[in-house]
Amino acid sequence: MTLLSLILGAALALVGCATATSGPDAPWIGPLRFSPSSFSVGQTVKLSFEFRNIKGGLAKSQVDLDYQGSLPMHTRKTSTFADLIKVLGGSSETGVFETELRPAPSDPPPFDITYYLRVKDAEGRRSNEASGSVRYRQL
């Protein structure tokens, strides 16, 4: 084995660690759904998504939930809802997660908020990234 093949093998191994697991048994999360599709300050929004093959369930997983607004000054940020998903997710490996949220935007409306969800299950396998948007509007 040459030095070049060792370096290429190590590089591919590192790339493989950073990507989602693939195959029929890989962790998967469906698109994020919001109901209603728009909200105003003080209103609640139902968040739901499907999931499957999450070993140990959402409760034993690392849940990453980021969000980004559609206005030019918005940058991608981590949401506090990730802990809520982990706590309420339970131990089921396949199912539908639902909860009510009360987002509290501080920017002038109207704009869209896009959420991005990823899960790393109890066995360290990474899911795909699911996303969904909800519209923040004036009363």
Structural summary, described in words:
The chain is elongated. The longest helix has 16 residues. It has 2 helices and 9 strands. β5 and β6 form a beta hairpin. Strands 3-9-8-5-6 form a 5-stranded mixed sheet, covered by helices on one side. Strands 1, 2, 4 and 7 form a 4-stranded antiparallel sheet that branches. With 139 residues, it is α+β, with helices and mostly antiparallel strands. The protein has one domain: Immunoglobulins (Immunoglobulin-like, Sandwich), CATH 2.60.40.10. The chain starts with a helix and ends with a strand.
What can be said about this structure in brief?
This protein is of the alpha+beta class and 139 residues long. The protein has 2 helices and 9 strands; from the N terminus they run αββββββαβββ.
The CATH class turns out to be Mainly Beta
Percent strand equals: 35-45%
SSE series: HEEEEEEHEEE
Query: Could you please say which CATH topology applies here?
Result: Immunoglobulin-like
Task: Give the CATH H-level superfamily.
Answer: Immunoglobulins
Sheet with the most strands, sense and barrel status: 5 strands, mixed
In terms of per-residue confidence, which ranges show pLDDT below 50 for 5 or more consecutive residues?
1-18
Q: Count every beta strand, where a strand is a DSSP E run of 2 or more residues.
A: 9
Structural class: alpha+beta
Overview features:
4-stranded antiparallel beta sheet, elongated, 139 residues, alpha+beta, 5-stranded mixed beta sheet, disordered N terminus
SSE layout and pairings?
Layout: H1 3-18, E1 28-29, E2 33-35, E3 38-39, E4 45-52, E5 62-69, E6 77-78, H2 81-88, E7 95-101, E8 111-120, E9 130-136
Parallel strand pairs: 3-9
Antiparallel strand pairs: 1-4, 2-4, 4-7, 5-6, 5-8, 8-9
